[in-house]
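Q: Here's a chain of 104 amino acids. Please give me its 3D structure as tokens.
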Amino acid sequence: MDALERIDDIVKKNPVVIFMKGTPTMPQCGFSSRAAQALMECGKEFAHVNVLTDPEIMENLPKYQNWPTFPQIYINGELVGGCDITLEMYQKGDLQKAVGEAVQ
């Protein structure tokens, strides 16, 4: 399975997933930290992929949905976006609703 197939598999198998630098409990970048914190505040489980430990995913993820930066958040297989979009959704209450609907 090549990297893009692996990414697709992860996105399809997890209702909510964040591709980030580090982990939610040990983020390695401020943007990843803030996005993961917003997801954690939603109170539901979500998957994460540390792109720093998987060079193939780090290299190929920007090609997957034509989104060049990290983190990338996917809900129900759809790219939500990165840190700014995630925080904006959280402030409006949209992130909590989307995560709540995705994770039953």
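Q: Can you summarize the key feature?
A: The mean pLDDT is 97.
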